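Team,

Forwarding the record for the chain on the shared tracking sheet. I've put the sequence and predicted structure together so nobody has to dig through attachments.
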Amino acid sequence: FRLTYADGGDALPSPTNNLNQGLLTKFRNLPNDSPQKIVIVTILLCLVCSVMVSSAAVLLRPLQLGEEQLSKRIEILKVAGLYNEDESVNTLFNQIETRIIDLATGEYFTDIDADRYDYQQAAMDPDTSIKIPDKKDVAKINRRAKLAPVYLVKEGDTAKSIILPIYGYGLWSTMHAFISLKNDGKTVEAISFYQHGETPGLGAEIANPQWRQRWNNKKIFSDAGKIKLRVIHGAVDNNSANAPHEIDGISGATLTANGVTNMIRFWFGDNGFGPYLEKYWQGA
């Protein structure tokens, strides 16, 4: 096969094509155990795999977000006492109203899609979050989103209970939980630790249903409005005046327990849901 010009003359070969063909020929002629050939093949294989992994991550991201939202809805339904595996999660979730609040003021924020808002992602963006001063960052989360979701379990037109997302650092990881409050906004109805990386058999006991059940009906605040709820070392003395505000400790997991206490202190304080709860108590 030969290229020709319109006047019938032979076309001159392209120098670039000759160079590429020469390089490919030299590469093919290299022995398979040649260090140069091994390095080139490895680099090419890594590039191809990187492109495939990146493409898969982009394409599957919407599905992943859908699964994350579904998982969170299940945890919210569980802590609300509404979950039934035989019924549609989305149908059950219709009993829950998702609202977005401005944590600084405690007021509802309406200029955002509550169902699509990701407060954890917002916490990583300097434009949608604030840096927490070290002295106030007892939960060791560094930054928090300016806006946060609250979940109102409705009974007619009134809120039967309030579910709040809280998180803080334990021994090894950031612990994420949903805590449900009775309609007084002060008493724990239930708690669910749905994500953590604490030590199996020790700190990981925060996810144990038997331990979580000990939170039920505990009082977060004192009569004077101070945050009193905490995980103690050892067992609660039910005859103690502080018993309504104390949770049994976890054997061998002091730092995890301290992290849980600090998480409560932060999120129910002025830098967390405190301003919102004050407005809620006032009926605002």
